[in-house]
Automatic annotation (TrEMBL):
Organism: Heterodermia casarettiana
Recorded catalytic activity of this chain's protein: a ubiquinone + NADH + 5 H(+)(in) = a ubiquinol + NAD(+) + 4 H(+)(out)
Gene: nad1
Membrane-crossing segments per the record: 6-30, 42-63, 75-99, 111-133, 153-173, 180-200, 226-257
Keywords, comma-separated and alphabetical: Membrane, Mitochondrion, NAD, Transmembrane, Transmembrane helix, Ubiquinone
Family, similarity comment: Belongs to the complex I subunit 1 family.
GO molecular function: NADH dehydrogenase (ubiquinone) activity; NADH dehydrogenase activity
Localization terms from the record: Membrane; Mitochondrion inner membrane
Name of the protein described by the UniProt record: NADH-ubiquinone oxidoreductase chain 1
Amino acid sequence: MLYSPLIMSILEVLIYTVSMLLIVAFVTVAERKTMASMQRRLGPNIIGYYGLLQAFADALKLLLKEYISPTQANIFLFFLGPVVTLIFSLLGYSVIPYGPGLAISDFNLGILYLLAVSSLSTYGILLAGWSANSKYAFLGSLRSTAQLISYELILSSAILLVVLLTGSLSLTVNVEVQRAVWFILPLLPIFIIFFIGSIAETNRAPFDLAEAESELVSGFMTEHAAVIFVFFFLAEYASIVLICILISILFLGGYLFSPLNSFIISVIHLFSF
């Protein structure tokens, strides 16, 4: 009985992490289908119904792929970089409130915690690019780091304006304050700036210069392959989902007006009578 709180905490983290990884997997499929539609292609449509299981096929291929590392690379830092980036990308989800009390850790400095964690993930990119002992990977890591730091200042400034309205660094308080009106209405210019900065922060087109596709390389991930490439891949899309959730919390009322929350409130009111 003494270990039951510890076991419950471990189960919560496991369920949370697996759910996030599944969401990230299907986001990759959604992006590939969207890009295919824009380019008048079919996209993934073989594995599973309408190609929905394509992400699992890609993950299996990368897990079974033979790993090749540069002979002159710093192997320890070469492996540590992707792990650091993935860990700090997933740590940001621990303070996200999906409903009243539905968060792993709902403390008063949630916004400050998110800013700190997102900043630390930059070190993984630097380590990966430098330790590969490749000029393409090193230049890619410098480009990516410069872009992340530059647009992070824009995101931080926009978030500070929201904090001035709420008077709190808590994400839950930020959501509850928007019961009267969403912040996107009084802060529409700030929302547009934040949205553009979010696209740059997640390396989406047209801000995907860090990958240097014109040079036919993958930026800081040029020398990475197989399993450790999966870490970078998951970290990138986990950051995309996290920034989308953050936009919803800061400007679109968060969980207040979600269909699931409305259904739960309706059921509670029904049984209260």
